[in-house]
Amino acid sequence: MKIPSSQITPEAIVLNRREFLKLAGVTGAGAWMLAACGGGQTASQATQPAGIPNGNISATSDELGNPVNTFDQITNYNNYYEFSFEKESVAGLARDFVTSPWQIEIGGLVNKPGLYDIETLKRTLQPEERIYRLRCVEAWSMVIPWLGFPLSKLLTLVEPTSTAKYVRFQTLFDTARMPGQKNPGFAWPYTEGLRLDEAMHDLTILATGMYGKDLLPQNGAPIRLVVPWKYGFKSVKSIVKIDLVEEMPTSLWMSAAPNEYGFYANVNPTVDHPRWSQAYERRILASGGVERVPTLLFNGYQDSVASLYEGMDLARDF
Ligand code: MTE
Description:
Layout (H helix, E strand, L loop, with lengths): L9 H4 E2 L27 H4 L24 H4 L15 H5 L8 E6 L5 E4 H8 L2 E8 L4 E11 H8 L7 E6 L19 E5 H4 L5 E6 L2 E2 L9 E3 L12 E7 L6 H5 L23 E5 L5 E5 L7 H4 L13
Parallel strand pairs: 2-11, 5-12
Antiparallel strand pairs: 1-3, 2-3, 4-5, 5-8, 6-7, 6-11, 8-9, 8-10, 12-13
This protein binds ligand MTE.
């Protein structure tokens, strides 16, 4: 039976507080000057053989006509430093990562904090298909058919208070299950943030699936953020904690290299990374191979999101 969203109460999906996950934070010593999407391989080395998209999707291109990548490409070329720095190794190393049961703790400046079960969230908030371009800061890109629900739906349920200005997201911290977190070069757990108006924007989703199926571990199962006008490193994976806060959160990448990775991370061809140009990207093609294409301001979502940044200096607030 479909429950109208008007009848969904946080009480209906909140779990007992005693079931809160035990989260422990550590601060890495020193910063490694790695690219947020780095790893030393080129996109062409990782491109899968030509193939048509597979899986259950309703359209095969995004709204600009860019064909979606294949399931094999999207699930075998990943950034997930908790498992590996090598994009093609993540899928194998994350294969046995157990993502069920899973809860997200939502707290901070909200009227209805609680522990939300992922399966219940999926049933009540009903993920829908969203085909988005993913532009990695390291200048490769893909087109991905996500299944997700607007983050705004979840935030509305928990009722941010008037003092809430930002949203902070956190990946699971578990060095036994995510061995990359033993690397002291990073301030684990992986943390990201959005301004509240960015978080409430309809394009911003929490993805739970891809190609009509549940997410695989390498793509951030069971739930990850997707903000299509920002560089891919904002898409924090395997989220266990969301907090509404007053101060701008410091992300893992901001603390690793503050001159290279800003809070906003908006895709912008006119603001170069200190070590490379952002004017072009290497689009990994579903048909095989790689095409060099100009990068679009806000990753091509300018009409929808430019108003969020009116009056801001995007070179300073990068
Ligand atoms: N989330 C966590 N927890 N750890 C990571 O290393 N990498 C980010 C982002 N989310 C990362 C993460 C980067 S750099 C990118 S480009 C995207 O995930 C890649 O998502 P994908 O592998 O699904 O394409």
